[in-house]
Each structure stands twice: as C-alpha cells, then as structure tokens.
Amino acid sequence: MLEGATKAHAAYLAPIKTSNRALVACHGPRPGKVGLVIGGGTGHEPCFMGYVGRGLADAVAIGNVFSAPPPGPILECAKAASGGAGVLFVYGNYAGDVMNFEMAAEMAQEQSIPVRSILTTDDIASSPIEDKEGRRGVAGNVFIFKIAGAACDQGLSLDQCEALARKANDRTFTIGVALEPCSMPQTQRHNFEIGPDDIEIGMGIHGERGVMRDRMMRADEITDRVMDRIFSEMKAPAGSSVAVLVNSFGATPLMELYILFRRVEQRLSAKNITIEVNWIGHYCTSLDMVGASISILHLDAELSQLLRHPCDTASLRIP
Amino acid sequence: MLEGATKAHAAYLAPIKTSNRALVACHGPRPGKVGLVIGGGTGHEPCFMGYVGRGLADAVAIGNVFSAPPPGPILECAKAASGGAGVLFVYGNYAGDVMNFEMAAEMAQEQSIPVRSILTTDDIASSPIEDKEGRRGVAGNVFIFKIAGAACDQGLSLDQCEALARKANDRTFTIGVALEPCSMPQTQRHNFEIGPDDIEIGMGIHGERGVMRDRMMRADEITDRVMDRIFSEMKAPAGSSVAVLVNSFGATPLMELYILFRRVEQRLSAKNITIEVNWIGHYCTSLDMVGASISILHLDAELSQLLRHPCDTASLRIP
Q1: What residues in B contact A278, CB-CB < 8 Å?
Q2: How many domains does chain B have?
Q3: Which residues form the DhaK domain (chains A, B) (predicted)?
Q4: Domain boundary, last residue among B113, B144, B170
Q5: Which domain holds residue A284?
Q6: Disulfide-capable partner of B272 in A98, A179, B114, B238 (CB 3.0 to 4.6 Å)?
Q7: Cα separation of A249 and A200, whole Å?
Q8: Structural domain includes residue B307
Q9: Taking CB atoms and an 8 Å cutoff, what residues of chain B touch A46?
Q10: CB within 8 Å: A252 and B288
Q11: Which residue of A has its CA nearest to B311?
Q12: How far off is chain B from A70, nearest CA to CA, in Å?
C-alpha cells in the first residue's frame, strides 16, 4: 500500500530513509516553522498520509491496520519535521497511539526538539462530558490537523500553534453511525456484528461500541439523533458559523452523504447557524465499513481564517 | 440527494429553474464558448454533477438511479450551457442515454443550438474491438469530460472540441473488476449475484456481465489481467505518457486502490511508459459495489496540456 501511495503522491510525499513507516512532505518542513506530525494506524485512508503537504502536516507516522505506529517512526517524523521552532504532535486519543507518541516525544526532547502533543477527542459519543479527556479522536481530527497545519504554515510560535489546535479540538464535535462492519484483512473477519436491520449510533472508527443500537431508521431521523446530541454540547448561538464534515466510513456512497448533509443543513439553518465550509466524502474511513459520521467545527474568526488558509496535499487542496 | 448536493455545492452548481433534473455551473457557460453538457443516471457520484464548474462541464442532466435523464432536462442543460458557439454532449453509450440525449439534441437544433454528441466507449471489456462503437462508457469518461471541458474553456471551436473529445475517447481504455454487488435502493436487492470467493473481470458500472468469472486472486494478478488486456489494445510505444485512473466502485477502500496502483505503475514502468497524471479514489461509482476499475488515457502533447488545464468543480480541482 505504501509503495503504491508514495509512487502516486511523489509530488507530495517522500519516504524518510531511516524508517519504512514514516513519510515527510516534499514541501512542508522549513527552518523557523513549527513542524506538524500526524499519524496513526492504516485502514483510515486518506487519513493520515493524504493530509501531508504544504499548509498541512509535515510528516506522518504509519502503523499497521488499526494499530498505532511504533515510537521509532514517530521520532523520525519529529526529526524530519523539525525546523528549529519545535514540533506539534496531533493524533487520536487511543491507548497505543498515546503510549508510542509519548515515547517518541521524550526521545525527541532528548535530541533537543521541543514537542507539544494534542490528543484529538472529538467523538462526543465515546465518553460522557465529565470524561472529555477520555474521548476518542475520529473524523473531526481532519479539521484539527487543518487548523494546526495552517497555524504552523503562518509561522506562529509553538505556544500559539498548540493553543489553536487545542481550541479546534475543543470546538469539534463528531458522532458516527454504523450499519455494517468492516472486514479486517489480518483476520478476514468482521470487526463487530450487527443485524441487517440494525444501526448503531456513536460507533467509533475501529468498531468501538456506540451509545445506542436501534432498528434501521430514515436518514433524517438518524441525522436528527446525531445533531440533537451535538447541539446538547455545542454552545453555538444564533449567528454562529460552523464547518461541517459528512464523512463516509468506507462503503456508504456519496449519494447517501448528500442526503445526510441535506438534513444537517436544515437543522443548522433552523438555529440560524451558517455553514461556512462543507466537506463531504471519504475523509477518515474504516476500511469498507458501512456508515458515516457528522463532524461540526464551531468556528470563530480566527479558526475560520485558518481553515481557509491554502493547503496542497494528496487528499485536500485549498487554493 | 439533489437538495443536499446543491446546498453543499452552491458555489459550483445552481438548479435550472425549468427542471428539477438539471443543474448549471455557476461559473461555466459564457458567450462565445462551446458549452459542455454531461449527465446520466445517479448512483455513480461524484459522476456526474461533481464535474460541473469552470474548466469542465457547464451543465448536467440527472436521471434516477442507474437510469438515463429524460430529454427535457437535457434540453434545458443545452439551453443553459449555450453561449452561441454550440454545445457538446458527452455521455456514456447506453441505450436509454443515447435515446434521450439524441431527442434532446434534435430539440436543441430546432431551437438553433448546434449540438455535437460524443458517446464514451472506454470499457474495452464490454464488446470486442470489432464492435468498438458498441462499447459502454465507464469511469474513463472522467478523462474525456476533462479533455472536452478544457477544450471548451480554451475557446476552441465546436469542431475542434468535438475532435479532441473523440480523440480522448479513442485513447481511453478501462476495465473494471467486481467482487460484490451493490444494493439497489429501488428494489433493496443486489444488482447481480456473485460467490463470496469469486471475482468478475470486465464488469460494468451497473453490474453488466464481464468477460470472465474466476476464483478470487491476489491484487497483482488481478491488475496483470487488466493491464494485459489494456496493453493488447493500447498502442503506446516506449517513451509514451499516460494518465492513470484507479477508481473505486464504492466499497473498495483507498488502501486497496493504492495496492492496485502499485502494480499498474510497475507494469507501465517496465514498458518505459511514464505516468504523467494519476487519479486514485472515488471518481465514478456504482453505489456500494465492491470493486474497482483501471483506466488509462494514452496522452500526447495536446491531450496532456488539456488534462492539466485548470478546473474548479466540487469533485475535481486542478489549480
């Protein structure tokens, strides 16, 4: 897979010679710029390597399917991304990733590369609000990468980049919905079981348990359940602006994402909330899982400017 | 679906008021420019409406799932896309589409809009070479749209635009491979049956019969069968350049497309053929069908320049 991807995206990505699990942006790291390192398991393509390039991430560490990358490649990414102004690690809050990114951060600091880590926790169904830090990072992490990448590209300090990425994470709210499991290539088995007429709301991107299993319902009803839950946490008054990401987990087609988006737009519009940016498609997948997630980033002027900042990567281009 | 898509892509697409099955590019048609009209059934998203915008198509006519659009909306598209220099219809060679686009072309000519029609026939597995005109148009049509759109945008005459689109069609070679059927929303049934360990080579984007059903094989072997067949028709000498499209039919993840691309690149490289452009992802789908297609456009200097010409649409942006 990596051989194919690096051949395909040679204009964006180059292998880091000291590791076969780390890639660096061809036009990313530069002296004086904070470096942005992302990464995680494979099986979520275009996460994470599709978001490496100018204006976004500088390097990506790559694990096995649904497994964290080892500390070694993450350290190589930190070194490759370092331009002397420090490095930001932004990754999903999963035990394996946390352990390995933390080890790599320590090793990088020993080599005099200052590292700050932001764990994405946008999956609001994964843990109650009292345990916000225990939540998982899912598709909304693409918003957080984008904000962090723009802040780095604009030459802000490590403190400022960290603060902006944290703000983006605090204001991103995602819920996923699964209809059918994916098949794990390692085991050739499904990663969970669900009845043909059932739906699970709140499911994670590796098939983690959601908050509710129910009989299949119409797209508008699914969207309403998701949006009600997002509205219960997102304190966006009338007149606010948001970015919306309707993301396929893999097998759910664009046609159905548009149907979900239609209702998302209606619900936001009814509250007089403006959709400033919408992304609809395959942004953070789970192999061939059937399902989708809805992420809302509650913008302010600063985040809006960063979200619109140009980037040029294999999977996201903002001119 | 259309409500969601037009809300999402309001910067690119506007409904044509006289039809609920026709959309026009916000920044497409202009006086003196040949207009490009595309269209077909839904269920292939981002085909076709994702390719409407500056530098690509000017209007799109939209049918039901896997069904041709009626002549009325196609005529409305021709009128909306007409800038006084004539209109090009580019669409896949299917009986329903041919009938309705031809009726619309006649109606447009009655209203003094000159129309030329190019039927895409890139699916080389769909009919033997002796019956080239009987072949179906599949994912390779995205290349043909792109060439035609660029020719129109560069202000070429209707004759020239037609000739270039025909040349692109003549030099585009696609073969699809299916592993699992899609589920038709109208019937809630599969559109064909295939064993869990079987694979069908040459299958069309609506589940049309392929050329060979076989036991499941490795990705490299699948790619070799496809490429051998493409090489048997594509007369590209060493030193040639091509564009490659590795397209998911829906449920096949990007990860697997990269694995296919890896082998495509090896095969082309062994013949000293350069990949000038590669597109890998969901370009022309079949709802949630499991499978992929490989399209090769044999470039020359003229086609290469047109393929790289800037375009700005919901699903394809070339800066």
Answers
A1: 8
A2: 2
A3: 1-316
A4: B170
A5: 172-299
A6: B238
A7: 13
A8: no
A9: 254
A10: yes
A11: A319
A12: 20
